[in-house]
Amino acid sequence: MQSHGEKPNEYSFGSIVKMCASLALLLRGEQIHGCTVKTGFDLYVYVVNGVLDMYAKCKRIFEAEYIFRTMSGEKNNVTWTSMLTGYAKNGFAYKAIECFRDLRREGNESNHFTFPSVLTACGTVSARKVGVQVHGCIVKSGFIENIFVQSSLIAMYAKCRDMEAARVLLRGMDVDDEVSLNSMIVECVRQGLEDEALSLFGRMHERGLKIDEFTIPSVLNCFALSRREMNIACSVHCLMVKTGYGNYKLVNNALVDMYAKRGLMDSALKVFEEMIVKDVISWTALVTGNTHNGSYEEALKLFCDMRGEGISPDQIVTASVLSASAELTLLEFGKQVHGNYIKSGFPSSLSVDNSLVTMYTKCGSLEDANVVFNSMENRDLITWTALIVGYAKNGKAKDSLQSYNLMIGSGIKPDYITFIGLLFACSHAGLIEEAQHYFDSMRTVYGISPGPEHYACMIDLFGRSGDFVRVEELLIQMEVEPDATVWKAILAASRKHGNIENGERAAKTLMELEPNNAVPYVLLSNMYSAAGRQEEAANVRRLMKSRNISKEPGCSWVEGKGKVHSFMSEDRRHPRMVEIYSKVEEMMLLIKGVGYLPDMSFALQDLDKESKELGLAYHSEKLAVAFGLLAIPAGAPIRIIKNLRVCGDCHNAMKYISKVYLRHIILRDSNCFHHFRDGNCSCGDYW
Ligand SMILES: [Zn+2]
Ligand SMILES: [Zn+2]
Predict the structure, then answer these.
(1) Which of the ligands is closest to the CA of residue 675?
(2) Which of 38, 143, 285, 320 is most buried, most CB within 10 Å of its CB?
(3) Which residue intervals correspond to the PPR repeats (predicted)?
């Protein structure tokens, strides 16, 4: 038109700019705005309204505001409504509310466009009081019959958590309004009213109303978080496919999340694999689900696949995969995740930092844990507890207690788990008085009743010093039934002090509590034989055999050159087996030269002396350390993980090995960490 030399008038400007608004064509819109200024048409209210609306719809709210403020002509209803709606739709709720007030003050009429906009704003910021006033205006101005206005009112009340008002309005509606029902369902789920959400959902389904793509994820969340029956969830899934939502990413993400949270990993994986477009949320749901269900290897594998697809991990998936590495004690992997996270440029979050502190302490790397801890701006109970437990498990009782004091000093109150760490630290360092003090403060200061874990630490502490009277007192004092950890502590103490009477009782109770555990049989038999009661020792071993109970085989892992190598006792499967066995021979020779004596009480009985000694030498942790000496460069620590507690003989040998080979050996057994350095162990020979 312009190229034909014809001049556009205010109506053609108005309609063209309107088109730009509805198509969100900002650049074109700006050009036309320029033309209107040049031609003076920007004085016509019809044109200005169009330009204002164009900027608001293109998310340029400040430009819209500028035009609104500086316009020379009279603002009409449309001007006000465009500005108000612009504010509401762009998330400026308070400005929208203010705009509504100005509009009323200037004596303008509101209509079925202004009311819903201001109500949306009220809902966004939970301004119920303003919402009620708007409701009053609506009634007065006769717009209450309008269905848009009604459904906005319902959404406003629901978002302001006034469900009763929302319900009354919903019941009063003449027709079943899809918009209102959808928004009610979403809000019910958000507020934990799952039954109501599901019943509304059922009603919509029965009457054939259209359920939108935002409502289905909400409904699926009902099943993710509760113990509700899964067959209903599956029918929701079917319905979803039937109604054509099968390809919606939002919907599928919610499905993956629901199945994963309920532990149905196969179904989660199936939905996931059928998704055409996957984003970080889809992957996160699957990774987190695996971590949550204890499938840590699978979680790590998926995480690697996700990276392979070029998707950058977010904070949630990072925290989750760090937890999985911590459980598997994969320090190298955890470090890589940490490094990548820093590189990704994501701002750090409390949950990621907490997972990092936990991962490093669980992998026995307190230095790294400290670096993260010190870099944190905010710390919460989880952060401090991770550090307190971490120090305790790594044989650093003093640091553990010191961190506890610092935590209390910073105003954070301890919880059940904090006290497990604290008492564990005390029991391993033999700090009877401190332990008693903390144990008492649990109830008197913090109102936490001690659980079996806390009693086990206390019993362990008294039992180790041979104070069986106090052990008995504690047993009587317990409000909860003593569990296996408590009896294990008693058994270990009885063995140490040769207290056969208590040992028998603890062993027999343990045999009932954990019928497949070989430990009570082995320890009891050893106790009898140490006391010279060979026949009873043999009886226990026979009983163990007749009940088909066998010792869980000891297994040790060592991370070397990016691979995890595992060793069983007397294992001959490793490709470098010949080298490893000759290294063991060398080790034994060298440490014997500096005073190591094999402790036969840890060997299998019924063997002659020489076979016993050889058997000891090929325990899994000794094979692992020999491999470590061969494969891990000098100066780097050797990190070993063992499934059972380290045996006394290996523990002793490790001390000598650390001295002879000048190596830091870190051994995590089923109970705690042992840092062997220069002939000593961080556990102070108590574990
Ligand atoms: Zn051993
Ligand atoms: Zn130790």
Answers:
(1) 2
(2) 285
(3) 76-110, 177-211, 279-313, 380-414
Q: Mind listing the pLDDT tens digit for each residue in 126-157? A: 999 999 999 999 999 989 989 999 999 999 99
Instruction: Give the C-alpha distances (Å, rounded to integers) separating 20 from 25, 59, 324.
Output: 5, 13, 51
Q: Render pLDDT for 41-90 as a digit per residue (tens, 0 to 9).
A: 877 888 888 889 999 999 999 999 999 998 887 888 899 999 999 999 99
Q: Which residues are CB-contacts of 95 (< 8 A; sequence separation ≥ 6)? A: 87
- Comparing 2 with 598, which gets the higher pLDDT? 598
Ligand 2: centre distance to CA 492 (Å): 16
User: Residue 589 C-alpha to ligand 1 middle, in angstroms?
Assistant: 16
Per-chain residues with Cβ under 5 A from ion ligand 2: 674, 681, 683
C-alpha dihedral, 589 to 591 to 596 to 597, nearest 10°: -20
pLDDT at position 80:
92
In the structure, what pLDDT confidence band is assigned to residue 596 with cuts at 50, 70 and 90?
very high
Domains of the chain: 399-546 (1.25.40.10), 555-681 (no CATH)
In the reported structure, the alpha carbon of residue 360 is separated from the centroid of ligand 2 by a whole-number distance in angstroms of 19
648 CA to centre of ligand 1 in angstroms: 6
Give the closest residue to 290 by CA, choosing from 277, 304, 278, 308. Answer: 304
Q: Residue 642 CA: which ligand is closest?
A: 1
What number is the average pLDDT over the span 582-596? Answer: 93
Q: Which ligand is nearest to the CA of 687?
A: 2
State in Å: Cα 610 to ligand 1 middle.
16
Q: Calculate the CA 501 to chain-centre distance.
A: 45
CB count in 10 Å sphere of residue 477: 10
Crossing angle of helices 114-124 and 77-89, in 10° steps, is 30
Task: Starting from the CA of residue 613, give the closest ligand.
Answer: 1
CA of 667, nearest ligand number = 2
Average confidence (pLDDT) over 345-351 = 87
Model confidence over 636-654: pLDDT tens digits?
A: 899 999 988 888 899 999 9
- The CA 457 to ligand 1 mean position distance, Å, reads 24
Neighbours of 199 (CB within 10 A): 13
Q: How many CA atoms lie within 13 A of 524 on its CB side?
A: 27
Q: Over the stretch 181-233, which tens digit does the pLDDT of each residue have?
A: 999 999 998 888 888 988 898 888 888 888 888 888 888 888 887 777 777 88
Do the Cβ atoms of 543 and 610 come closer than 8 Å?
no
Dist CA 206 CA 283 (whole Å): 34
Q: How far is the CA of 392 from the centre of ligand 2 (A)?
A: 13
- Max distance between CA atoms of the chain, in angstroms, equals 118
Cα–Cα separations (whole angstroms), residue 600 to 23, 105, 452, 499: 85, 95, 33, 20
User: Which ligand has its closest atom nearest to the C-alpha of 395?
Assistant: 2
CA of 356 to the centre of ligand 1 (A): 32
* Neighbouring-strand partners of residue 681: 676
Query: Cα(458)–Cα(486) distance, rounded to whole angstroms?
Result: 9
Contact (Cβ atoms closer than 8 angstroms) between residue 103 and residue 80: yes
Cα(26) to centroid of ligand 1, in Å?
A: 74
Q: How confident is the model at residue 605 (pLDDT cuts 50, 70, 90)?
A: low
Which region among 210-214, 464-468, 508-512 has the lowest average model confidence (pLDDT)?
210-214
Phi first, then psi: give them for residue 564, nearest 5 degrees: -100, 125
Q: Which ligand is nearest to the CA of 647?
A: 1
Alpha helices per DSSP H over 499-603: 500-513, 519-530, 534-546, 577-593
DSSP element (H, E) containing 564: strand 563-568
Query: 639 CA to middle of ligand 1, Å?
Result: 16
Report d(CA 286, CA 291) in Å as an integer. 9
